[in-house]
Design goal:
Distance between the termini of chain B: 35 Å
Strand content of chain B: 25-35%
Order of helices and strands of chain B: EHEEEHEEEHHEEHEEEHEE
Order of helices and strands of chain A: EHEHHEEEEE
Oligomer: heterodimer
Helix content of chain B: 25-40%
Largest sheet of chain A: 5 strands, mixed
Number of helices of chain A: 3
CATH superfamily of the largest domain in chain B: Molybdopterin biosynthesis MoaE subunit
Helix content of chain A: 10-25%
CATH class of the largest domain in chain B: Alpha Beta
Largest sheet of chain B: 7 strands, mixed
Shape of chain A: globular
Distance between the termini of chain A: 31 Å
Number of strands of chain A: 7
Number of domains of chain B: 2
Structural class of chain B: alpha/beta
Largest interface: A-B, 16 and 28 residues
Number of helices of chain B: 6
Strand order of the largest sheet of chain A: 2-1-7-5-6
Shape of chain B: globular
Chain lengths: 90, 272
């Protein structure tokens, strides 16, 4: 799986695209765990009391995982995952 | 319109080759190095590639289809009715570039460098055309107004409303000056969200067309960032759709803004 990171999250990780070893059938939460293990600097920025902070967006294939089963959402082959802070366009 | 700068020795030759390969309406702009011969510069017919050929003189005026100041105005003016602009020896932020010459420095080039070479023969035109497909086009408010005016419902429209977001140098007179903003976009997903918002707004009674464009990259103080253009039956629904359109874009579309002032640099979401 690949994570796409944006704004300061990409700066902390040092990369905009991060590959993790999470397999199809595992969950978005597993993929996030693998990402935070590879880039521990992201942990404080992304988590609040062990949960994903309210203002952090987690998307799977362009759609917020809240619309599916949240962090329990099962991954399929070829999924695109994205992690970003509050949007600030305009 | 997709602009491209070609810089360095042999740029003119490469511009000619490229212009012949580009499909659609192509403008070729050259920097005029001979301001003394002002009567001679201007339109070149027949012998060069490109549908529009212009010369921009060192004092910022250009000839060919009128006189305006500078490269920016020329980009804005040509954008609505050209598919490509090939600029020889002219560069700016957010215009991708080809850099020729052994001593050329990409760090000194304001736009993204798509290709490099000692001379024009070193640049693979097929690769360059492919790279250009992924580059950001030059979109203006006027281009979007022209687009919505071509609506099948234009006859029933009595109103066009537009919103333009721009880089504010300072909010209050004694604020520190903002020099520029840098925007990044979640490509694909940002477009999908804007299209979905536009589709919802055009479902409203009397709203016929909604066009969004948000620029990315580095945008300097005073420059435009984002446009929302609405074609509607009457002014009330036009104003409402424009306001809701920009509000929803700011809330929902994955675009991120980093601000640089005279003394610091920060992401906007960390200050709100």
């Amino acid at each position: 799986m690949e994570w796409k990171l944006f704004a300061d999250l990409a700066e902390i990780a040092g990369d905009r695209v991060v590959a993790v070893d999470t397999d199809p059938g595992e969950t978005v939460g597993d993929a996030l765990g693998d990402l935070l293990e590879a880039h521990p600097g992201l942990r404080d920025r992304v988590l609040d009391d062990g949960e994903v902070a309210d203002h952090i967006n987690v998307l799977r294939n362009g759609s917020n995982v809240h619309h599916d089963d949240g962090m329990e959402t099962r991954l399929e082959a070829g999924d695109e995952l994205a992690l970003f802070p509050p949007v600030s366009g305009g | 319109m997709q602009p491209i700068s070609i810089l360095g020795p042999g740029a003119d030759d490469l511009a000619g080759t490229l212009a012949e390969r580009l499909e659609g309406r192509v403008a070729v702009v050259r920097r005029d190095e001979s301001p003394d011969e002002s009567n001679e510069r201007g339109h070149h017919d027949g012998d060069t590639a490109g549908d529009t050929t212009l010369s921009l003189s060192s004092d910022g005026s250009w000839t060919g289809r009128g006189t305006v100041d500078g490269f920016d105005a020329l980009l804005d003016r040509l954008a609505p009715d050209h598919d490509y602009l090939v600029a020889v020896g002219l560069a700016r932020l957010r215009v991708p570039a080809v850099l020729l010459g052994d001593d050329a420095d990409p760090d000194e080039t304001p736009g993204d460098v798509l290709a490099r070479g000692a001379g024009p023969e070193d640049v693979d035109v097929d690769d360059l055309l492919a790279a250009l497909v992924g580059a950001e086009p030059w979109v203006t408010r006027e281009l979007l107004v022209d687009r919505v005016e071509r609506s099948a419902d234009a006859e029933r429209s009595g109103a066009i409303a537009t919103f333009t977001g721009r880089v504010r140098a300072r909010d209050a007179p004694d604020d520190e000056r903002t020099t520029h903003l840098a925007f990044e976009k979640y490509e694909g997903v940002a477009r999908e969200r804007m299209d979905a918002i536009a589709a919802e707004l055009t479902d409203r009674e009397g709203v016929f067309e909604v066009a969004f464009h948000h620029r990315t990259g580095v945008i300097e103080a005073g420059e435009d960032i984002v446009f929302v253009v609405v074609l509607a039956g009457h002014r009330a629904e036009a104003f409402r759709a424009v306001e809701d359109g920009i509000d929803r874009l700011k809330d929902e579309v994955p675009i991120f803004k980093k601000e640089t002032t005279e003394s610091e640099e920060f992401w906007l979401h960390q200050r709100s």
